[in-house]
Amino acid sequence: MKNTLIILSLFTLAACSSAPTESEETETITETKDDTTTLQDILNEKKEGFNAKADSTKKRVYAEGIQAVIDAKITENALQVGDKAPNFTLTNATGNKVTLYKELKKGPVILMWYRGGWCPYCNLTLIAMQDMLPQFEAGGAQLLALTPESPDKSMSTAEKNELAFQVLSDIDNTIGREYGVVFQLTEEVKTYYEKGFGLSGYNGNDKGELPLGATYVIGTDGIITFAFLDADYRNRAEPIDVLNALTHTN
Description:
This protein is of the alpha+beta class. 40% of the residues lie in helices and 17% in strands.
């Protein structure tokens, strides 16, 4: 049987048009895409739009939030290339159970975390990964996404972005914590998120915790062969880099 390569996306999903969006990111981006446009180009355009419109206080608060993740050494302490990926079982948006090690029997897996359907940087990333999906599948790959959102919220995000891959709900960031990719928001950022779009309503708790926009490629032996970890949620793994990593993973 042909091996299937699974991309388990634990990305931070971005804003649903049917739901309130994070106030920093409510402006519309006009994307001019050509063969040389990267995902990071698109994300940088979004960031420039925020910097042009946000007031100085909000920009300071968000910058301090990113610095807090750096100071906490989240990226250094998260699982790295060469580490064994912990097994888990999570529920997808339609209520079915998905177990990592069972999926690894079919082929390598990619895990991507997304923060939630309110995060436009995540939505842009999910769309970019969806665009690459045919190439992933041509190589025997399947793409999955992991989020701290409740299943009903993750279903909404998947439908809005027309995602053809599974989205898994990691309630309370239980699995994200095992992989070391979860961080605590500063009180100021937490307040902005709660007032702006109601973070606790998406996550089902008021802990003020989120995952990095992390991406892993895991071989059939359970060993991580590729890791993208960045304290700045506006930076994400390039789909082409993920695709290239898959070609070197058993």
